[in-house]
């Protein structure tokens, strides 16, 4: 294996994976993908966590660029950043292609 510098894409993928490294954040991210629209304030209803904890998880996802948030009145509405989702899928797909395992379940 030759020495190569860490690419910006590798750094981004690591940051995205880090943001998804908690089961609650994976659940929130999955819910936002399934809803396929922005959600205002209802995320707390699907999680057995305090509102402040859900907010912290959303902040991690937002800081990683996986989720976008906009303030609408007293609530913040969140939705998946579709470009980031496609980028994440592409990066993971590239890893699978490297391993020769693409398409296997």
Radius of gyration: 16 Å
Low-confidence stretches: none
Report the mean per-residue pLDDT as an integer: 89
Report the portion of residues in β strands.
5-15%
- Per CATH, the architecture is Orthogonal Bundle
Number of helical stretches of at least 4 residues? 5
Structure, described:
InterPro entries: ArsR-like_HTH (IPR011991), HTH_ArsR_DNA-bd_dom (IPR001845), HTH_MetalResp_TranReg (IPR051081), WH-like_DNA-bd_sf (IPR036388), WH_DNA-bd_sf (IPR036390). GO terms for molecular function: DNA binding; DNA-binding transcription factor activity. This is Metalloregulator ArsR/SmtB family transcription factor. It comes from Pseudodesulfovibrio cashew. This protein has 105 residues and is α+β, with helices and mostly antiparallel strands. It has a single domain, classed as Orthogonal Bundle (Arc Repressor Mutant, subunit A), CATH 1.10.10.10. 57% of the residues lie in helices and 13% in strands. Strands 1-3-2 form a 3-stranded antiparallel β-sheet. α2 packs across α4. The longest helix has 18 residues.
